[in-house]
Amino acid sequence: MSQPTPTVSVIKMFASREDIYVREAKGRYTNWRWACVWLTQLVFYGLPWLSWNERQAVLFELGSRKFYLFGVVLWPQDLIYLALLLIICAYALFLFTAVAGRVWCGFSCPQTVYTEIFMWVERKIEGTRSARMRLDKQAWSLSKSARKSAKHAVWAAIGLWTGFTFAGYFTPIHTLAAEVVALALGPWQSFWILFYGFATYGNAGWMREQVCRHMCPYARFQSSMFDRDTLIVSYDKARGEPRGALSKTTAKPAAQGACIDCSMCVQVCPTGIDIRNGLQYDCIGCAACVDACDSVMDKIGAPRGLVRFTTENALKNKFSPKQIRQRALRPRVLLYSVILAAIVVAFLGSLLTRMPLKLNVIRDRGSMAREAENGAIENVYRLQVMNTDEIAHRYRIVVSGMDGIALATPDEVALQGAESRSIPATVRVAHGSGAPGANKIAFELKAINDDSVRVKEKASFFVPR
User: Fold this and answer.
1) Domain ranges of the chain
2) Residue among 442, 435, 436, 432 at smallest CA distance from 381
3) What is the DSSP letter of 435?
4) Contact criterion met (CB below 8 Å) for 252 and 301
5) CA nearest to 358, candidates 276, 292, 456
């Protein structure tokens, strides 16, 4: 007797991804989102092409360790400014999140911006939401292949142009463009153009909401910055429930809520959630559902605001817009604002009053001291001088701290704009000057044509015992 064939069941550990066909939304928040798209991309794509003092306005030259930001030249020693800038960005994010939730994610995040651009391309080539759904269900044909190929070709072109622009912040973009035309790109330029281009193509074209759901850490800890007075995209359950479809023949029941269950808010959501289920970490705060719901309310002659930016306390206590604005100035927001303002003032003040000259003094380790003519004692140093200004300067070197101390090497040096140079300096004192051992001295470097540009650095002069 034959044994029955055992049945095999497959248990999936993760749910398969459902395709999201996003419907185009129209309204004030969509207009704001597109304004952010234009603003961010004009800045990103345009900055490398701007010139400043016959050079690229924004350029990070890693090889020469110089960072040009319009009229400011930063060096590795200026890393504190990068730290301050990151702190400013962090506190600004905390402030915006405490006030208006994930407004950064919904309007200005690069993932959102490029996804919006890629979806626009998709709509132009493949059609509306229903047309795209029908196209994906069709068998492969010449027409379908042509549409899909055209879409991916445009996506790839946008990704490569984005990668090229990114590389243009680290290699002069005019030089980079000439190398691309001549097919003479170096290995690192090629790698970063292709890597950043592929990341843009993959994240905005294929992964989309998966980046926001599973890869972005901000979605996971955003709730710690929310409170009951944070503005978030919310569904007014008291007004909308119970839901019910709108009938063309019969009057709307008195007990029925304002929501006609049209699912437009779900169709326009880029992450595919239903905002009527309450606050979810998947919600990026783009307010596309607000525009969709408002347009439906306009069509059926109902007041707008069934889905809107509001707070949990406002929904519960029926606060007016004036009361919502008043409660926005709460201790957390005020604290973030004060801290952010203080850091910004300190950052700008330090940057504007920054001395465009740097000096490092290094002793010659090969010889602590040596005897010169007439019994004089000499010490040898290496002065690392950096002119962080955009214009050339001539500097005078002055040494002080001991009786009769003087330079035995030339006391003037000329540097071009944004130039760094190592200068040997020999310091001499007369026999009998100073105490045996290390004596404190100082080197001062000052611009001959600008007395306000000067810097002083401590050192030590060794006298043999």
Assistant:
1) 28-223, 228-316, 357-463
2) 442
3) -
4) no
5) 456
* CB neighbour class for 383 (10 Å; exposed up to 12, middle 13-18, buried from 19): buried
Measured between alpha carbons, how far is residue 355 from residues 349, 388, 447 in Å? 12, 8, 11
Q: How far apart are CA 172 and CA 54, in angstroms?
A: 12
Assign domain 357-463 to its CATH superfamily: Immunoglobulins (2.60.40.10)
Half-sphere exposure of 156 (CA within 13 A, CB side): 7
Strands 419-429 and 412-415: unpaired
Q: Identify the band that residue 143 occupies on the pLDDT scale cut at 50, 70 and 90.
A: very high
426 beta partners: 380
Task: Give the pLDDT confidence of 151-179 residue by residue, as tens digits.
Answer: 999 999 999 999 999 999 999 999 999 99
Which amino acid, residue 65? R
The mean pLDDT value for 171-190 works out to: 91
Give the DSSP H or E segment for 459.
strand 454-463
Distance CA 317, CA 324 (A): 11
Judge whether 99 and 328 are in contact, CB under 8 Å: yes
Q: At 274, list the tokens.
A: 């239903």
Report how far residue 183's alpha carbon sits from residue 185's, in angstroms, rounded to the nearest whole number.
6
Q: Are 53 and 311 in contact (CB under 8 A)?
A: no
Tell me the DSSP string of 336-362.
HHHHHHHHHHHHHHHHHT--SEEEEEE
Q: Which of 338, 105, 323, 98 is nearest to 227 (CA)?
A: 98
Q: Which residues pair with 379 in a beta bridge?
A: 427
Enter the tokens of residue 200.
Answer: 């843009």
Question: SS3 string of 196-216?
Answer: HHHHHHHHHHHHCHHHHHHHC
Mean pLDDT to the nearest integer, 413-435:
87
Phi–psi pair at 378, nearest 5 degrees = -120, 140
Look at the block and give the residue holding tokens 């140079």. Answer: 421
Q: What angle do CA 93, 38, 62 make, to 5 degrees?
A: 65
Q: Which helix (H) or strand (E) holds 87?
A: helix 79-100
Q: Quick one: which H or E segment has residue 363?
A: strand 357-363
Q: What does the alpha-carbon distance between residue 324 and residue 318 come to, in Å, rounded to a whole number?
A: 10
Please state, in angstroms and rounded to a whole number, the distance separating the CA atoms of residues 230 and 309: 9
Report how far residue 419's alpha carbon sits from residue 396's, in angstroms, rounded to the nearest whole number.
16
CA–CA distance, 19 with 132 (Å, rounded to integer): 11
pLDDT tens for 329-386 read: 888 889 889 999 999 999 988 888 888 888 899 888 777 788 888 888 899 999 999 8
> Rounded to whole angstroms, how far apart are CA atoms 370 and 408?
13
